[in-house]
Specification:
The chain is an alpha/beta fold. The chain contains 13 helices and 24 strands. It has helices spanning 21-33, 47-58, 92-102, 123-132, 164-174, 192-199, 230-242, 261-269, 307-310, 314-323, 343-353, 384-395, 416-423; strands at 2-5, 10-16, 37-41, 62-66, 69-73, 86-87, 108-112, 135-139, 142-148, 156-158, 180-184, 204-207, 210-214, 223-225, 247-254, 272-281, 284-292, 301-302, 327-330, 357-361, 364-368, 377-379, 401-404, 424-425. The structure holds shikimate-3-phosphate.
Length: 426
């Protein structure tokens, strides 16, 4: 599928972005492990979350729809053995978090994924789970992977990289081990798992870059309202910032501090972006974001502990950097190479086709600003976030930008083009 983007005169209007992907995955999984019913409002209906749903259904969980809400009937920590391999599709969160849960189940499960997911590292999750007592066989550190669980011991684990997926897998496995399981990270990754575990009634203690869960809790199902996904909102934040004359209000966006680095960095660059009506959906903070476009942006350095706070937004921030005055340096972001695509390589190649001046480095990019992008034929490289970042680039390019492989967008944001069209004024 191809998308053709033509620069609009401006973007104007109000948008409610889809539900947070990370939170939807976690709500489905914890709802499955809880007692009673968990209902989800404003959840993300996209391919990645469908992968989690179908895996959970194969493990015996009943998930139904009640009007606009999802209903998950919890199995009180005891899942059923699936009669076929679980297909995690393109979704790293599905595969890695489910491994944590399956480590606690006394049966064998095989997990498979699409081509991209089958190239992504799984040992980072398998290693701590094996230390806790699970048996895992894989293909050179990748899917397909077979796990046999049960009889886990608690663990204190220092993760080599800040990864919420690794942290979450260990914490979820820790639910099945008697005693305290602790994860210590080099920098704070997103904390949705620990916040949600708490809301389900688990005993959680958190410190800086450290989280402990007490095993064998009774998790209690409850209603959850999912905040809008800041990672989806980020495409419209940057789009509205870059297109002069724009005025966009993004409603109900999750602004959890472990996720909101994109707001901090855009404000550092000089963007006119204001948080309104800050409030909470359960344990998660949300706000409406008001953005006025056309303000001059300056280049910045994005590095260190900021990286996990905006890891999924780096591609679209790189697009913003092409229009800034001066140089933007992205460092310490080697994790981008093991996402749905090698995002450093994919983005550098595709943005260059649009006339951007940038250098690919081992762990990031150096982007020279004031590029003056020109429309061209580009490719999503099979990666939803690359596709949407290129669409944003197309909004400030002269002429048409033709994005091949745009079907990848359905992984996280099926209505992206319709939402973009609803704001564009030509
Ligand atoms: C996610 C964690 C991050 C992020 C991914 C979603 C999650 O990955 O990039 O899109 O939901 O836990 P890592 O844990 O690999 O950093």
């Amino acid at each position: 599928m191809q998308f053709i983007i033509t620069a609009p005169q401006k973007l104007q209007g109000e948008l409610k972005v889809p539900g947070d992907k990370s939170i939807t995955h976690r709500a489905l999984m914890l709802g499955a492990l809880a007692t009673g019913i968990t209902t989800l409002e404003d959840f993300l209906e996209a391919d990645d979350c469908r992968s989690t749903m179908s895996c959970l259904r194969s493990l015996g969980v009943t998930i139904g729809k009640n009007g606009k809400k999802l209903q998950i009937k919890g199995l009180n920590m005891v899942l059923q053995q699936a009669d076929a391999p679980l297909y995690a599709g393109n979704s790293g969160t599905t595969a890695r978090l489910l491994l944590g849960i399956l480590a606690g189940q006394p049966f064998k499960t095989k997990i498979i994924g699409d081509q991209s997911l089958s190239n992504r590292p799984m040992r980072r999750v398998a290693e701590p789970l094996v230390q806790m007592g699970a048996s895992i066989t894989d293909e050179g550190g990748h899917l397909p992977l077979t796990i046999s669980g049960g009889n886990l011991r608690p663990l204190t684990y220092n993760t080599p990289q800040a990864s919420a997926q690794v942290k979450s897998a260990v914490l979820l496995a820790g639910l099945f081990a008697e005693g305290k399981t602790t994860v210590i990270e080099p920098a704070a990754s997103r904390n949705h798992t620990e916040l949600m575990l708490k809301s389900f009634g688990a005993e959680i203690e958190t410190g800086e870059c450290r989280v402990m869960v007490e095993g064998r809790p009774v998790l209690k199902g409850h209603p959850i309202r999912v905040p809008g996904d800041i990672s989806a909102a980020a495409f419209f934040m940057v789009a509205a910032v870059l297109v002069p004359g724009s005025k966009v209000l993004l409603k109900n966006v999750g602004i959890n501090l472990t996720r909101s680095g994109v707001i901090t960095v855009l404000q550092q660059m000089g963007a006119d972006l204001e948080l309104r009506d800050q409030r909470c959906y359960g344990t998660e903070p949300v706000a409406d974001l008001m953005i006025h476009g056309g303000v001059r942006l300056n280049g910045v350095t994005i590095a260190g502990a900021m990286i996990p706070r905006l890891i999924d937004e780096l591609p679209v921030l790189a697009v913003a950097a092409t229009a800034a005055v001066g140089r933007t340096v992205i460092r310490d972001a080697g994790e981008l190479r093991v996402k749905e695509s090698d995002r450093i390589h994919a983005l550098s190649g595709e943005l260059r086709k649009l006339g951007a001046h940038l250098t690919e480095t081992e762990d990031g990019m150096i982007i020279e600003g004031s590029s003056g992008l020109k429309g061209a034929r580009v490719d999503s490289c099979g990666d939803h976030r690359i596709a949407m970042s290129l669409a944003v680039a197309g909004l400030i390019a002269t002429g048409d930008t033709n994005i091949a492989g745009a079907e990848a967008i359905a992984i996280s944001y099926p209505q992206f083009m319709a939402d973009l069209r609803s704001l564009a004024i030509f």
